Amino acid sequence: MYPIILVDMDGVICDFVHGFYEIARHKFPDVYEQLPEPNKLSEFYIENEIKDPVIKQRATKIIEDPQLFYMLPPIENAVSGMKYLRNLATQNGMDVFICSAPHGANKDSYKAKAEWVGSFLGHDWMNRLMLVRDKTLCNGAVLVDDRPEVMGSYKNTWEHVLFRQSYNEHVIGKIVMPNWSDECVECLVEYTLGL
After folding, report:
1. Whole-Å CA distances, 134 to 20, 29, 94
2. Side by side, which strands form the sheet with 159-163?
3. Residue 134 annotated among the catalytic residues of the structure
4. Model-level pTM?
5. Which residue among 8, 15, 65, 146 is the active-site one?
6. Which of 10, 15, 145, 146 is labelled catalytic?
7. What is the mean pLDDT of each run of 10 residues along the chain (195 residues)?
8. Is 146 in the active site?
């Protein structure tokens, strides 16, 4: 069995923060005015940045927007980085899959995530896409994820590699992937090989 590298989508491959802010700016200006600069978020759940309970409630509606998951741009160098990762992993007897949790409040997120992968990474990547609410169900050597703590109902088989974002800068004691540079991709493969 090949060692598997699992890679999250939102906040790792695609820019969820950008999409959230764009919908807020166009449809919920009162929410947009309450948000910090995108690169200064301190909360994984963006709506938790808002202290006013009425405006915070409106912010949660952004997650339900049918267009949200369709309009996310790729994170810088993520598309080329994923292709390089797959190539490098294959050369070293490993495999790469995308492992993403569709949002329970957004029924369109399932379809949108699959279409996003097909559009930006290519249709062959759609066979490498796992959409699952509980990532502990997925087997792998590592999971690259921006969430500070990846929780689930089962004991995970993978090591959590933290993809660095402003809202997880406080997390210590984990292997960190700062970006999608070739050097970072090579370090990820080297780390996985050493497990």
Report:
1. 23, 33, 23
2. 129-131, 95-100, 4-7, 142-145, 159-163, 175-177
3. no
4. 0.96
5. 8
6. 10
7. 91 98 97 96 96 94 95 98 98 97 93 97 97 96 97 95 98 97 98 95
8. no
